[in-house]
Specification:
Strand order of the largest sheet: 1-2-4-3
Shape: globular
Radius of gyration: 15 Å
Length: 142
């Protein structure tokens, strides 16, 4: 009974990212880039060919985004960490998490283009390190 009241409020609290998540999901379905869809609590965990992004109730992840062989799903865990950030921050998520995360993606691409090697610092700074902690992603050497 509690979920009957809480889930609609939570959906509205995360409305901007849920709206974007619905749009991204629709585009990915049309392009046939989704591999598997699983429900986890109120979230849709969507395995994709090469996209990792969390938009409200829509968690897109890719096995190619995994960093640690001992976890096998660390990209999913990381994106679930972003989903928790979305619950905490609600309509402020895209400003506080989305923009810095996207900036880190662009910086990493520019770094890779300029230096010819991938940028290894993506997950060490805010908001990515927080998402890793919330999602339970741990390097086995930590």
């Amino acid at each position: 009974m509690k979920k009957l009241f809480v889930l609609p409020l939570l959906f509205l609290w995360e409305l901007p990212q849920n709206f974007l998540g619905i749009m991204v999901f629709a585009i990915m379905k049309l392009r046939k880039t989704t591999l598997k869809i699983q429900a986890y609590n109120h979230l849709l965990c969507i395995e994709t060919k090469n996209v990792g992004i969390s938009l409200g109730w829509f968690v897109f992840w890719t096995p190619s985004g995994n960093r640690f062989s001992h976890l096998e799903i660390d990209c999913l865990l990381h994106e679930l960490g972003h989903a928790r950030q979305s619950v905490f921050l609600g309509p402020f998520y895209l400003l506080i998490i989305g923009i810095p995360s996207l900036a880190r993606v662009f910086y990493g691409r520019i770094y890779s283009w300029k230096h010819g090697v991938g940028w290894t610092g993506y997950f060490t700074g805010f908001p990515e390190n927080w998402a890793d902690r919330l999602g339970g992603v741990k390097n086995k050497w930590e």
